[in-house]
Structures are given as C-alpha cells and as structure tokens.
C-alpha cells in the first residue's frame, strides 16, 4: 500500500468544491444541507466531516471489561477521480478540476489521501490527444464518508473501492454458507503423511499438497525431506475424495481421485519430470517450443520474425532475470514499492509474471524455451502480490509514458471499475493494446476482460500434451474435436471472448532458473500477447501511414487482424472460443486464412470511449439478440457498453444498473481464482 503523502496545501480549495473551505468543526450542518440540496449552489465535494461518518462509531472502541477492542469495519481505501468528458456529455456536466478536487480532499480531516496517480511526464499528459487527463487520487475513509462524497459529486465524481486484484487461487475457499456441520474434539480425525519424491527418489521440498474429503480440505507444503502431514477433521480413509500435488518446478503435477490413503505409514507420490514427456525430451538442456506455440505455428515462422521494435509490458508479479531465458528483460517498474524500491520488478516471489514472460519473449538460446517475440523490448511491471485497482491504473500510466505497444494483463477483479476503464480507454487512445485473460471461474467473462476496449482470451487444451495422472487431466471437458482440442473447464465464457489460446499444461519459466507446467487463462493470454507483438512488428498494415501512427485505430486494426487469423477449435460454441485459435503465419501476413471471411469490425475512432465492435457469431437466443442489436453493421454505444455485453445482459434478463459508489454489479457471482 502506498505510504501517506506529506504534501501540504497552502491555499484554500475552490469554494464550489469545498463548501467554502470551512474547518471540520464547522461543516457538519453545511455537509448535511449540501447532501440534501440539488440546487446550483450545492457543492459536489465537502471538505469537512459528516454526521454519517461520526455515527459509524470509533473502530477502536474498547470492550466494557477492558479485555480488548470490539471488531468493527475499518476505514477502506478508495479511488477518487473526476468522471471524464465522455461520460459527462449526456448529463450536460462539466468535468471537475483535478487540482481543486485534490485540495478539497486534502483539507478534510476525515479523509486521508495516501497517493496521487497521474501522468509522469508531459508526454504522458498529452499521450491520448485529449490533454485533459489528470489522474486519480487514492484515499482512506469510512464507507459512510465515501457514500456522501459520491452523492455530493452529482455525477461528476467517481468514488470506487480500491479493490484488490487476483492472480492466484487461494488455498482455501471461503465457506458458501453457515451450516450445522462442525468438527469437534470427539469426532474422527484423519492424519496422513504424504511423501513427494522425484527422479531417483529425490525428495521434493516446497510442493503444495492437498487432501479433499467431504468437508473442508487440508493443505500444506512439503519440508526439506519432501514430507507433509495433513489432518482432515470428520473424515476417514474411505471418505477421502482426492489427492493433489503441485511441485514447485520441473515436474508434472499429480492428481489421484479416491486415493487409497494409509494412516499407518507414509503415502508416497512419485512425480514425473517434465523432460520425461515425449514432446519435451531433452528439455531444458535442449531448446523446445511449447505445445501451444506449435499449435499456433510459431515453429514455422521465418527466423527473422522476432518482434523487433515493439514494446511489451507484462503487468504481473515481476520477472526473474536470474532465469537464463529472461536475462534480456532490462526495464520495469515495481508499482507496489514505487516510493522505496521502484526497481524491484526483477524479484518475482510468485513466479506468475516470469511464467507469462517466458511464453511472450523467452530468449532464443540453446536451452529452455523460445518465446514468441524474443527481440521485443519487454517491461515488467510488478503489481503482485497484493495489487489493487489504483496500482493497475499507475502501471498503465507507466505504459503510456513509455509508449508501450502491447500490455499483457493476466489478472482480474471482482467488480467493474469505471476509473480503471477510463485509464484503459486513455491507454487505447495512446496506441496501447491490452490483451486480457477472460478468467478462471468457469462463469461469465470477468473484468477487465469484459471491457469493450480490450481483447479477451479464453483457454483451450489439447489431448496427449500432459500425463493422464496429472491435474491437467481434470480440466478436460466433453467438447473435444478431431484434433484433440478442448475447451478448459475453468475458462470463463461469454460474447466478450475474442479468441482462445493454449492454457492447459503450458510449460514456461519460473524462478530462479526453472520451469513449470501451469494451467489458466493467465497462460493463454501471453500466447496472444506474443502474437500481437509479432503482428505489429511484421504485418504490412502497420508499416502504412494509417496504422503506423499510435492511436485507437491502430489498436482496433490489430484486434481485427488477430480475430481474422483465428480458426475454429473444439466442439464448443463460440462464447467459449470466440473466433478461435489465432495463427501466427496468418497474423503476420505471410499466409491467408483458407475459407476465412475477414471479421467485420470497424476501426475505432480516436477520442471515442466505446469502440464500434462486431462480436463472434453466436447461436441461439443470444445470437438472435446480437443480430438485432447489430443491425448488420457497426454500432456506437454512448454509454460505454458494447453490443456483445448488452446481448449478454439481455440473455440474463438483467438491466445495466446505475452507478452506486462507482460500482457496476456483475450479472453472475464472482469466484476469485488464478487467471
């Protein structure tokens, strides 16, 4: 979390924003009267305290017997920003002045401004061609104060919870409901020792091990001897339903359904080395292409197509430059520690960002794997663990300042953020293409992949690319085509899905200098990001004056080419695969797609918030709704809602809700999981 700013304000805030700049002790009545007024004199932001916040009580209140503090809601972090003109024109409002807003918030003694995110240079301030973007404020306050602030903004102010973003699946799910089942000291307890070994019986430390029963699972990590003891309460050996082992690196995962568990002796799991698999024979000593890269025909691309001159940003958990395949990454930004160690981007404690970086741009050396665009200039923006919306906005600001071409976003949040959407639109106007993971909840496409201003990627797998006893086999569904391609069970779906890409059993780099095979739309997205870099670098269209210049039209043309390069895979409907699996040779202009009609997508006009988009061809009721909305041509949606999203909401029978404290509720529950 950013440290509180010590910047003071010497002048009084604008009277129309602060209610005359009164002190906190004298503004309660003013604040109440302002909230109840809709006249021209009502100020949208009050600088002082408010009765609603005071009514919340002291969060640190002591108990009657002095034994401790009573648990209550804490102050929360919010993103506050003027709503940009695109969203204000329909309401005939003028945007708030950022400087006056900042002064008003800093002069309030019940609002703590902890960070300011904005253009990092004159180039960044003018990058979108609008000249009016001024950034966002990050502040801590009570929920009541946030609600009052939002109301006083009169539609001109965004006040959103600074939600945490997700990369990794939590070890334990939160219980869905309160039940009558509970473990007691008198109930059965199953204690099992799991021993994990690799080649030649070598113990495997730091392997994640989970046992699943009929109630809560038990999870742990193996010690230096490769062992872990797990305890399942209320279970017997006969009720254990599954055993899952995820090695730290260099081995395939393991999953056994209905395992025969002994409580009397160690239960030994022998893992298979990645190099034991036929397609990875000799790996990593000998260089290899991943199965996904071969499926997209990267291995057939001429050797001089390497992404030269393109800048790629990977907003993730950093990139471990200790890895032989990632030593070429020379630039980045640690958003989490920007005030203390902005150069800490090369420390990747999760391995997730390094894995994505390997697929995109692993160096073309004699060992390891080869990435799609090894000669591209890669920037690693460290946002995890613990990244929030405000920090993602800051990372995109870095991308605008650095004139990045393509951004990989293998992440997502629980709610739509209008403040983040404004930044995505701004990045698009600056010529930055955001490639985003659709999500792993198995439900509707999550945000920001659901944004009409990005390219959303779903995940597919392929038979015979992983051992049958690995956990990868659990991702298989019934939609298998004649070539073995299938849609992954976990992959999110919906009309926003543009394309699919390999996202099951993807082998790539992990710290410090190892490899791992992982699943997720997180792993599918880098395949498309790498392809996008190659397309920008080598497709003839981007050497022409029309699309060489940075801007939203360039981004829309890139998205159109990627969609047009794709071919159908699996037997699933197109809400799960979009236009299909992109082809590298077609995307760079070396081949034409056989029997493929170009996607009818009108290029985005610079300065327009919502693009004019066509969605994948969908069947059934959703397809009919789409057809009616499209009317056979491109549609501009002034509310920032693409026609595909409208069709999805119509299918759910859900109306697009009004903003409430800057939030857009989703039509289906969100389940945070690794993307």
Automatic annotation (TrEMBL):
<keyword id="KW-0645">Protease</keyword>
<dbReference type="InterPro" id="IPR023828">
    <property type="entry name" value="Peptidase_S8_Ser-AS"/>
</dbReference>
<keyword id="KW-0378">Hydrolase</keyword>
<feature type="active site" description="Charge relay system">
    <location>
        <position position="316"/>
    </location>
</feature>
<dbReference type="InterPro" id="IPR022398">
    <property type="entry name" value="Peptidase_S8_His-AS"/>
</dbReference>
<dbReference type="Pfam" id="PF00082">
    <property type="entry name" value="Peptidase_S8"/>
</dbReference>
<dbReference type="GO" id="GO:0006508">
    <property type="term" value="P:proteolysis"/>
</dbReference>
<dbReference type="InterPro" id="IPR000209">
    <property type="entry name" value="Peptidase_S8/S53_dom"/>
</dbReference>
<feature type="compositionally biased region" description="Polar residues">
    <location>
        <begin position="7"/>
        <end position="17"/>
    </location>
</feature>
<dbReference type="GO" id="GO:0004252">
    <property type="term" value="F:serine-type endopeptidase activity"/>
</dbReference>
<feature type="domain" description="Peptidase S8/S53">
    <location>
        <begin position="307"/>
        <end position="549"/>
    </location>
</feature>
<comment type="similarity">
    <text>Belongs to the peptidase S8 family.</text>
</comment>
<protein>
    <submittedName>
        <fullName>S8 family serine peptidase</fullName>
    </submittedName>
</protein>
<keyword id="KW-0720">Serine protease</keyword>
<feature type="active site" description="Charge relay system">
    <location>
        <position position="352"/>
    </location>
</feature>
<feature type="region of interest" description="Disordered">
    <location>
        <begin position="1"/>
        <end position="69"/>
    </location>
</feature>
<feature type="compositionally biased region" description="Low complexity">
    <location>
        <begin position="23"/>
        <end position="58"/>
    </location>
</feature>
<dbReference type="InterPro" id="IPR050131">
    <property type="entry name" value="Peptidase_S8_subtilisin-like"/>
</dbReference>
<feature type="active site" description="Charge relay system">
    <location>
        <position position="522"/>
    </location>
</feature>
């Amino acid at each position: 979390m950013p440290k509180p700013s010590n910047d003071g304000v010497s002048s009084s805030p604008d009277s129309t924003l602060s209610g005359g700049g009164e002190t906190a002790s004298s503004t309660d009545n003013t604040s109440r009267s302002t909230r109840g007024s809709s006249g021209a004199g009502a100020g949208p932001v009050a600088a002082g305290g408010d009765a609603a916040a005071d009514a919340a009580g002291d969060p640190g209140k002591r108990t009657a017997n002095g034994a401790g503090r009573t648990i209550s809601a804490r102050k929360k972090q919010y993103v506050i920003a003027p709503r940009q003109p695109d969203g204000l024109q329909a309401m005939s409002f003028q945007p708030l002045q950022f400087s006056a807003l900042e002064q008003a918030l800093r002069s309030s003694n019940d609002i703590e401004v902890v960070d300011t995110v904005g253009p990092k240079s004159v180039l960044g301030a003018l990058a979108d061609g609008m000249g009016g973007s001024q950034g966002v404020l990050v502040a801590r306050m009570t929920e009541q104060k946030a609600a009052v602030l939002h109301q006083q903004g009169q539609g001109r102010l965004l006040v959103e919870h600074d939600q945490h973003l997700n990369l990794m699946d939590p070890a334990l799910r939160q219980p869905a409901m309160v039940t009558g089942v509970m473990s007691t000291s008198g109930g059965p307890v199953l204690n099992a020792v799991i021993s994990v070994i690799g080649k030649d019986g070598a113990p495997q430390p730091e392997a994640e091990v989970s046992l699943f029963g009929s109630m809560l699972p038990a999870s742990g990590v193996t010690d230096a001897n490769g062992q872990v003891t797990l305890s399942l309460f209320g279970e017997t050996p006969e009720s254990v339903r599954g055993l899952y082992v995820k090695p730290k690196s260099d081995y395939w995962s393991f999953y056994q359904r209905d395992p025969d568990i002994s409580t009397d002796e160690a239960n030994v799991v022998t893992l298979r080395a990645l190099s034991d698999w036929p397609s990875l024979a000799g790996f990593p000593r000998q260089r290899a292409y991943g199965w996904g890269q071969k499926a997209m025909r990267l291995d057939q691309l001429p050797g001089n197509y390497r992404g030269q001159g393109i800048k790629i940003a990977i907003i993730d958990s950093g990139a471990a430059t200790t890895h032989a395949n990632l030593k070429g990454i020379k630039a980045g930004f640690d958003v989490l520690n920007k005030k203390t160690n902005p150069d800490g981007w090369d420390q990747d404690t999760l391995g997730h960002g390094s894995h994505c970086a390997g697929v995109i741009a692993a160096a073309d050396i004699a060992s390891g794997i080869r990435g799609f665009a090894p000669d591209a200039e890669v920037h690693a923006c460290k946002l995890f663990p613990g990244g929030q919306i405000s920090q993602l906005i800051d990372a995109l600001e870095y991308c605008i300042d650095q004139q990045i071409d393509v951004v990989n976003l293998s992440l997502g949040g629980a709610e739509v953020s209008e403040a983040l959407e404004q930044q995505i639109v701004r990045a698009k106007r600056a010529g930055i293409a955001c490639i985003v993971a659709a999500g792993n909840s198995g439900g509707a496409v999550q945000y920001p992949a659901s944004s009409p201003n990005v390219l959303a990627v779903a995940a597919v797998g392929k038979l015979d690319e992983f051992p049958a006893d690995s956990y990868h086999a659990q991702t298989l569904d019934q939609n298998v085509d004649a070539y073995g391609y299938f849609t992954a069970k976990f992959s999110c779906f919906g009309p926003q899905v543009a394309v699919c890409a390999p996202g099951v059993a993807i082998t790539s780099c992990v710290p410090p200098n190892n490899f791992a095979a992982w699943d997720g739309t997180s792993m599918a997205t880098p395949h498309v990001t790498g392809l996008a870099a190659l397309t920008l670098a080598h497709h003839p269209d981007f050497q022409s004056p029309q699309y060489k210049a940075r801007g939203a039209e360039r981004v829309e043309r890139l998205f159109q080419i990627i969609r047009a390069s794709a071919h159908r895979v699996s037997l699933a409907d197109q809400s799960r695969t979009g236009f299909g699996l992109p082809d590298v040779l077609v995307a760079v202009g070396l081949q034409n797609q056989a029997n493929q009609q170009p996607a009818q997508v009108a290029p985005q006009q610079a300065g327009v918030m919502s693009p004019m988009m066509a969605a994948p061809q969908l069947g059934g009721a959703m397809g009919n709704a789409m057809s009616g909305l499209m009317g056979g041509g491109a549609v501009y949606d002034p509310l920032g809602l693409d026609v595909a999203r409208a069709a999805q909401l119509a299918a759910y029978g859900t109306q697009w809700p009004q903003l409430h404290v800057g939030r857009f509720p989703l039509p289906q529950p969100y389940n945070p999981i690794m993307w």
